[in-house]
Fold this protein.
Amino acid sequence: MRVLAFEDHVDIEALLISGSVKTADLSFEQRWNSEDALEHIVRVRPDVLLLDHFMPPTTGLDVLDAVLKAVDAGRMARPTTIVAMSSEPSCNDAMLTRGADHGIVKHRVATLDIWP
């Protein structure tokens, strides 16, 4: 499973490991800012896309909108699972409304039932 996380402060792979997710079964990459987000998503072709909301230079919501627009235009395939993982629940709700599949406070991301 290919996982791409956009998070600027918290080591998401460490969160997954501490939550007993078997990361050996994952191809994991974390981007520490949202610069060139679409290019990284196209390159990695993640099965799981993890988006923080507050992530310079843009937001996870903006990245989600760009992904869905690119998918609609046929420029990329949609990741199987898109997870909004802000520390602020209202930001996750906004991404869920726009088309994310899951919304969870980032420190609980390992509890999602999506991990092998």
Notes: The chain has a mean pLDDT of 97.
